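Recap from last week: sequence in, structure out.
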Amino acid sequence: MRAVTPAGTLAALEAQANPARAARMAAYHKVPRRYLGLSNALCNDLATDLRRSLSLPDRLALADALWRTDIFEARITAAKLLVQARIRPDDHGAWALIQSWLPDLDSWAIADATAMAGQRRLVADPARLDTVETWTVSSHLWTKRAALVFTLPWTRQRHPKPAEKNARARILTWAADYTTDPSWFIQKSVAWWLRELSRRDPDTVRTFLARHGPAMKPFARKDAARHLPPSPSLF
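Predicted structure tokens:
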């Protein structure tokens, strides 16, 4: 089998470039970098094939090299190369690489693709929440936002274990601190976390909104409550 190289992988992406779509993407994302105009599905399919064929060291090296190109689809593919629930023999290299990307985050699409990889690494080792907590005071908007987007798995346990309940309560204190941040993306991250949690634990979300909702931007408060079921009647 032919060796997989960063240049070869980039060439495979470039071979399917769509200049017209790339121009629309550049206008939409409003971040000056090269866009190839590829669909998310195409990047995902390529990353899936590469995950299956490469050793972990080779995958990490390829992800790092693709990220360094600063091409939109190359960064998306780099992140998708690390979306895996279990990484053996250990995932320390993947977690370190994901963390190294945080200062480069500058748009929601790349940030969210990176978060999908980061979420798996946090679920694999919840002790890493100690590191994530340091992000909550970052002056870099996208690192600060990552603290909530990376921790979305803790909104999804319908019957959380005690440790998961504690983690959920801890993350909600971060969200409470974020409610006074005027940034649209930070407000949106709070709303996203609460909206997801409302599907499994609506009472906690109602309590949060009663206490901290007045500090939130109206759009975020409304978004957070979008899926809340009606409050149960007392009669």
